[in-house]
Amino acid sequence: MADADEGFGLAHTPLEPDSKDLPCDSKPESALGAPSKSPSSPQAAFTQQGMEGIKVFLHERELWLKFHEVGTEMIITKAGRRMFPSYKVKVTGLNPKTKYILLMDIVPADDHRYKFADNKWSVTGKAEPAMPGRLYVHPDSPATGAHWMRQLVSFQKLKLTNNHLDPFGHIILNSMHKYQPRLHIVKADENNGFGSKNTAFCTHVFPETAFIAVTSYQNHKITQLKIENNPFAKGFRGSDDMELHRMSRMQRLPIPATTNLACCSLLTSLDLTSALFPSRTCSRQLPKTSLYNANQTRLLHSLEHSQASYCSQCQVQTPWCS
């Protein structure tokens, strides 16, 4: 499933980048976008009792760092585009027999709009109002801890779009705005499979996965990195710089006919925002969530009637902090 611009009301504050093997309940310290130096440091932004000891490691972190050092850009299209690098993680510390839900959202990193000029990114104004936040639920959810820990957890089917009327559950973003992906691990309720008001969860944030959404690549260095490392772009390797820019606008990843619904898991009988993710960092009341045609479209559209604003306390763009 999908959606982004807002979130759960959780603080978005990445953890100390030099920390190694950091537990889920550690305190965040470093700023968004700060380079992370450790070879594999799990990041936690928020946790609840009963989720201590869970650790998440970002797969291909060195590749993410290469992009991060230049300024990661992710293409957004009307039809939806997958992320590259793909968001994949290794999870440890789960109870092998307990069922968990793994889901992602992508929240605004700040309240700015950006432009790329003179070979660098700079702030050009205030951010456009964010779209209501969507959640992408991993299609294996809910599954046992043993299942999640057995192999890498991949969110490569997640797609980004600039279509504000998108009916497929893709995450809706604004071009030339900066975003931060977040991973949430939720303990599934034994009765309804997805959660209840007392469901425990924790949130993990990797600063090196932050990116600016674009409709075409702005920095030729990013274009080169994508072509050098993305197997779908191997046909473009060896082109000169001007050709790389042209080719980058022509790139389109295949969209399997079964993808749209396959990667959208249905959440039922659950006010996800107020039940699973109560605001522990912002005292203002969260809005209600709502389901749009859940049985037909299998999409969760959360935070329906919101008008987003940036909360300096939470450090994320949220509709309930205005």
UniProtKB/TrEMBL annotation:
One of its GO terms (cellular component) is nucleus. PROSITE patterns: TBOX_1, TBOX_2, TBOX_3. InterPro entries: p53-like_TF_DNA-bd_sf, T-box_DNA-bd, T-box_sf, TF_T-box, TF_T-box_CS. Residues 58-238 form the T-box domain. Residues 1-46 are annotated as: Disordered. GO terms for molecular function: DNA-binding transcription factor activity, RNA polymerase II-specific; RNA polymerase II cis-regulatory region sequence-specific DNA binding. Its main location: cytoplasm. It comes from the Eukaryota. Residues 15-28 have a biased composition (Basic and acidic residues). It is found in: Cytoplasm; Nucleus. GO terms for biological process: cardiac left ventricle formation; cell fate specification; pattern specification process; positive regulation of DNA-templated transcription. SUPFAM superfamilies: p53-like transcription factors. Residues 34-45 have a biased composition (Low complexity). Keywords: Cytoplasm, DNA-binding, Nucleus, Transcription, Transcription regulation. This is T-box domain-containing protein. Coiled coil: none annotated.
